[in-house]
Design goal:
With 519 residues, this protein is of the alpha+beta class. Helix content is 36%, strand content 19%. Strands 6-5-15-16-17-14-18 form a 7-stranded mixed β-sheet.
């Protein structure tokens, strides 16, 4: 057996498995000696979890790297555009704020805050970014004539997760040379070294490999069952462990929301994602604070309010149970967990797909040439991923701590015992000064200081008082904010609605192929 890593075997399909397969296959040096092969083993006995998904702007780069054209993606996945997230009722039940994908105008946290305090009539996000006003008007982030994945503002997508996996499967097998084995994994063969040697399928026998990616979802067949890596439960910080999901039909020509709406309720929150043909809606809640029947009533009441022409009793509610947490390690020997097998945190801020993307990026950027180097790669990967998971846990918790709601669920979220020590320290610091890059240690933070500002000031966090040091370049920042206001007016006047953009796209008779759009 050669020491080289030549055969990558992915166990599990869905978004995680097929994204991994396509990204790795597209990155392989096919002109090199013995290029790396990619095999994906997918059981038809195991349904994929797909309730409607939101992505980050990173997905645009991912799709371009894979070689899928943007128009093809939008058509195939019933997809739409996402400007960010709007939070309704999180502070006191009657409030609203926006977390856009666009970074604020250039300036330090202190100068931005000082400039906003000069004109506090608008929200912080509206003052420093054009995107919230573009989003609430249901405008697309781009003009139809722009090159693929270019936009007037930064944007991600809303999509149908099942259709997305189907698109990736077709592209991976037909364009990128991914071998697809549709079979059930019955057992795992281990080598004398302790590595995984092969997965044994019901009909196709053993599928050997050098590096195995566990994309088997919550089952974690390889990283958990076979490699025995423990799961770290984070439900002491993030309480939600249930969701009721439903697909709501929409009328042809109706508006398509350009952001994910997250509406707070007494023991959790409700997501609302707009697609061209339907809305994906889900009630997220804590079973320790709300019964399943009460959650169904909460979701039904929301649907009656937001979709009065739809009878909730005629819809099919899907019950989902989950634990917020992650593996103690994500790369064990020659097994790497990607997607739900690595971990899952409540769907707030749509971190699931981006963690898949970031995991695959980290693997490809430091792909092991030989088995002997895997322990070093694994240690580096585990350190990076654990840092990222910890930061996500803290950022999600940040959405709850400033709340003034008086239900037991929200009071429990504010209890000091449930707030991570690092976040508690930062919150104490942010009473004196705004979040800054110095508060975060990584070169590429998953949630930068600006994201924390959007949430804190959207939630009414007490503004710092008199600073010991003056805010420099205040005049320059004020000028940039004035320019941002002018840009907002220009974008509102020039961008089409999401519905108009997508209806025009779907009317086009001859869609370009993926290969035509990637050259």
């Amino acid at each position: 057996m050669t020491d080289r890593v030549q055969h990558v075997v992915i166990v599990g399909g869905g978004t995680a498995g097929w994204l991994a397969a396509c990204r790795i296959a597209a990155a392989v040096d096919r002109d090199g000696p013995d290029p790396v092969s990619v095999t994906l083993v997918e059981s038809s006995d195991v349904p994929t979890i797909g309730v409607g998904e939101g992505t980050w702007p990173t997905m645009r780069r991912t799709l371009a790297r894979i070689g899928i054209g943007e128009a093809d993606f939008l058509r195939a996945c019933d997809a739409s555009f996402k400007h960010g997230s709007r939070f309704l009722g999180w502070r006191d039940g009657s409030d609203a704020y926006f977390h856009p994908f666009m970074a604020p105008v250039e300036g330090t946290g202190r100068t931005l805050l000082a400039a906003w305090q000069q004109e506090p009539s608008a929200s912080f996000a509206d003052t420093v970014s054009a995107q919230p006003q573009v989003a609430v008007r249901d405008l697309a982030p781009r003009q139809p004539g722009m090159p693929d994945y270019a936009g007037a503002v930064n944007y991600g997508y809303h999509l149908d997760a099942g259709k997305f996996a189907d698109l990736l499967r077709r592209h991976g097998t037909e364009r990128l040379g991914v071998r697809h084995v549709r079979d059930h994994v019955d057992s795992v063969q281990m080598a004398e070294t302790g590595d995984i040697a092969a997965v044994v399928t019901r009909a196709n026998g053993a599928v050997p490999g050098d590096l195995f990616l566990d994309c088997s979802g919550h089952a974690a067949l390889l990283i958990g069952d076979r490699c025995g890596v423990p799961f770290i439960d984070r439900s002491d910080v993030l309480f939600n462990d249930r969701a009721l999901a439903v697909q709501v039909p929409v009328a042809a020509g109706s508006r398509i929301a350009a952001q994910t709406d997250a509406t707070a309720h007494g023991a959790g929150w409700i997501w609302d994602i707009g697609l061209p043909s339907r809305r994906g809606v889900g009630c997220v809640y804590s079973s320790a604070h709300l019964t399943d029947s009460a959650a169904e009533q909460t979701l039904s009441a929301y649907l009656q309010r937001t979709a009065p022409d739809v009878d909730p009793a005629a819809l099919s509610f899907r019950q989902l149970a989950f634990r917020s947490g992650h593996r103690a390690r994500f790369w064990e020997r020659n097994c790497l967990a990607v997607g739900l097998s690595a971990g899952f945190l409540e769907p707030l801020e749509a971190s699931a797909i981006v963690m898949v993307e970031l995991s695959i990026d980290a693997l490809i950027d430091n792909f092991p040439v030989a088995r002997a180097s895997m322990p070093l790669h694994a240690r580096r990967f585990n350190t990076l991923q654990r840092y990222r998971w910890d930061r996500i846990v803290e950022f999600l918790k940040l959405h709850y701590v400033p709340s003034m709601r008086d239900e037991p669920y929200w009071r429990d979220h504010r209890a000091g015992v449930s707030i991570p020590d690092r976040l508690a320290d930062l919150l104490a610091l942010w009473r004196e000064q705004p979040p800054s890059p110095q508060d975060f240690g990584a070169a590429e933070e998953i949630f930068p200081a600006a994201s924390h500002q959007y949430v804190l000031y959207g939630m009414g966090w007490p503004l710092p008082g008199h600073a010991a040091m003056r805010a420099e370049d205040h005049g320059d920042v004020a000028q940039r904010i004035a320019q941002a206001a002018a840009r907002t007016r220009s974008l509102i006047a020039s961008l089409p609605t999401v519905r108009a953009y997508l209806d025009s796209l779907h009317r086009q008779v001859a869609p370009r192929t993926a290969m035509e759009t990637c050259h």
